[in-house]
Each structure stands twice: as structure tokens, then as C-alpha cells.
Amino acid sequence: MSAIREYFRFLEGVGLITKSPTTGIATPKREKNGRQVLRADEYTKMLSLAGANPRDYAIIQVFLQTGIRVSELANLRIEDIDFIKPAITVRGKGSVQREIALEKKGIHALKSYLALRPQSISTRVFLNYQGDPISERGVRKLVVKYRKEAGITKKASCHTLRHTFATCKAEKGVPAYQLQQWLGHANLNTTQIYINLGKQNARKIMQDTSI
CB count, 10 Å around CB of 108? Predict the structure, then answer.
């Protein structure tokens, strides 16, 4: 639009036209990037590649099964895991705690990792190769590593795994209020984005499977 406007402005300036037809036409707003979400085949490939490393597999699985933030995962402590309920207690923004139920895949992944977890004076669940708590940066690098190895070209990150969790739950009919509790959103309007996205995807699925 900018190039077309300049072209007609030039023609008007040299007298080849009396008035530019672009006068009064607003410049379109740049389209905002949508929330990146991984397809089932994409995150399954990442899990498959991480399968040989119990820690890495558990990290990706916990992201996908709970939707927690990278800061929350890095700060997760052993005492925050309750295999009886089963659930994890997450310390979110503003030190607000919330409880997230664990699914079977998350339970299995965490148990497998904890059985092999190195001894450490730290009670943080996830450790680096030096036996110290893994940093948020370390977790981010890990996710990027498996994203690249899986051949995923989109800029998937830890937050993408969170979006994937939320979108999948919304598509399966999880109410906004429940999703808000799991994600730790202070405002329900933030959660509503996933509900709306879930509805859009549901319509697309209906259309794609039309008989």
C-alpha cells in the first residue's frame, strides 16, 4: 500500500493524473502474530527425541501436562509433588500458590526422573549436569534444542508448550474458570483467548471432517 500510494503521488506530482486514487485509504494495520501452538505430531517428536534422557523428557512432559511457566518449572521443589493426590503445587506470580492435578503421563515421567536424579543438597526437582538447580535459561535452551532436532521450523519455546496445553484443554471443552486456575491467570479475559481459539479450531475440525 505504501508503494502504491507513493507511485500515484508521483503521477499526481508530474501532472499525469489529477488526483491520487489512494487518497483517503487507510494503511492496513500489521497483523499480529498469533500464539504459537504445536501440533500433536510435533510435540510427540520432541518427546520421542528426549525419551533417552529422563530429565529432559520429564521437563517437556510437565510443560505439556500442566501448562506451567518456565519460572515455575525451574523453581519446582520435590516437596511440591504429591503422588498420592496426584498433583503439584506451583508458586506463581506474586508468590500465589496453586495446585495442578497430574495426569498419568506426567506422573510416570516425574517418577522415572526422580528415581535417577543425582543426590543434591538442593530440593529443586530439576538439576543441571553439575547437580545444581537448572536455570530458566537452561530450560529454554533445552526446549529449543529438541525443537530444532524435531525439525520444527516455527519459533517454539517453553511458552509455546504452555499455549499448547491451554489450547488442547480448551478444544476438549475445559471451562474457562478451570483453565484460569490451572494457568494461574489473574484475569479471566486472558484465559478467554484460549477458549475462543478452541472454538475456532473446533469449527475448523467440523469443516475439515464434513461428510
Answer: 14
Beta partners for 90? 98
What positions carry a catalytic annotation?
69, 93, 159, 162, 185, 194
- Taking CB atoms within 8 Å and a gap of at least 24, the contacts of 191-200 are 191/166, 193/35, 194/163, 194/166, 194/167, 194/169, 194/170, 195/170, 197/35, 197/167, 197/170, 198/167, 198/169, 198/170, 198/171, 198/172, 199/170
Q: Which three cell numbers stand for residue 210?
A: 464434513
In the structure grid, which three cell numbers stand for residue 117, read together? 536424579
Rounded CA separation 97/69 (Å)? 13
User: Which amino acid type is present at position 93?
Assistant: K
- CATH class assigned to 40-208: mainly alpha
Alpha-carbon distance of 210 to 204, in angstroms, equals 10
C-alpha cell, 120: 543434591
What residues are paired with 89 via a beta bridge? Answer: 99
pLDDT one digit per residue (tens) for the chain, 211 residues = 778 888 888 888 888 888 888 887 776 665 444 578 899 999 999 999 999 999 999 999 999 999 999 999 999 999 999 999 999 999 877 678 999 999 999 999 999 999 999 999 999 999 999 999 999 999 999 999 999 999 999 888 999 999 999 888 888 878 877 888 888 877 766 666 665 555 555 455 445 544 4
